[in-house]
Amino acid sequence: MKIRDRYRGVMDWFAANMPVAETELSYSDPFQLIVAVVLSAQCTDKRVNMITPALFARFPDAPSMAGATQEEIFGLIRSCSYPNNKAKHLIGMAEMIVSRFNGQVPSDRDELTQLPGVGRKTANVITSVVWNSPVIAVDTHVFRVARRLGLTPGARTPLDVELRLTHEIAEEVRPQAHHWLLLHGRYVCTARKPHCSECGLKKWCAWFPEHNNVKIS
Known about the structure:
This protein is mostly helical. It folds into two domains: 3-21 and 136-212, Endonuclease Iii, domain 2 (Orthogonal Bundle); 30-131, Endonuclease III, domain 1 (Orthogonal Bundle), CATH 1.10.340.30. It is built from twelve helices and no strands. α9 (140-149) crosses α10 (158-168) and α9 (140-149) crosses α11. The longest helix is centred in the middle third of the chain and has 19 residues, at 83-101.
């Protein structure tokens, strides 16, 4: 199967079967989203959504969080993974947003990656979700699904996957394509025992016939 045909089939299937695809993190503004995304690293969105209501009730914006102590933040996020590091990053991030960006979360990816705890993936999530920028954030789900489907042959790193997806997927589709691939990986194409019998993408999937002794015509 030609790579363009595979992309066309996968994107068309998602557009028809998952017309609404968006982040499952709860937030009310860009600052709360960036906090939630930082907390979500190696932690489920469900757990993050259990943590953030109390956190945002106490520290709803960058100025208030910038004035918090690490112990205060830790006490509110301790049930997530790596709470010590994340508490430190959240305070440092809030301080920089206040001191360098006048209290506003920057919309530029390069500026976002200057913030403590914010890497390329997190920056792509923020710009995509908040400003609908034509970028694709590659987390563990997107990385796995893109490679299994055969969308990124030869890609070995998240950056390789991001660049290939960005090259092949139309600009106007990229923000939604991130959520399509992520949600598909979270609920169908799981890391262990993917639910191939429930998957509508078998026709275009490179992984399925190789691991199920099936010939796709």
